[in-house]
Amino acid sequence: MRYTIVGNAEAIAKAKEYGYEATDATSVPIFQAEKLAFQSQDGRGVIVPVFLSEKDLQESWERLRGRSSSVASKPSVTANSLSEVLSAMEGGAQDYTKLEFFPDLPALERARDMLQ
Fold first, then answer.
1. In this structure, are residues 1 and 65 in contact, taking their beta carbons and an 8 Å threshold?
2. pTM higher than the cut 0.85
3. CB-based contacts of 30: which residues, under 8 Å, 6+ apart?
4. Which of 11, 34, 33 is nearest to 81 (CA)?
5. pLDDT in tens, the chain (116 residues)
């Protein structure tokens, strides 16, 4: 079985603001913020979130700011290609075990509806 993951047009447009260049119609941008990490709930240590929605990244940053006055008002955001990150993970050149992918809310709701 073969699947194609297709990027959201809104996410692609937002990613271009961060220098992202879509390589083809199925390109899926991902967003990361420098200095944004979470403590895992299961004892794995620090988790580096990778968002499929820039809006979700910004909301996570705002929650972090609400807990600490030393956090910058705006995050330093980078946009990359999901396929490039997955290829790098397959190659094993770096330790990607701390990355955790966060889909956007509509995707989670669609998945929930499909499972019911």
1. no
2. no
3. 50, 51, 52, 79, 80, 81, 82, 85, 101
4. 11
5. 777 777 888 888 999 999 998 777 678 999 999 988 888 888 778 889 999 999 999 999 998 888 888 888 899 999 999 988 888 888 877 778 888 998 887 877 888 888 88
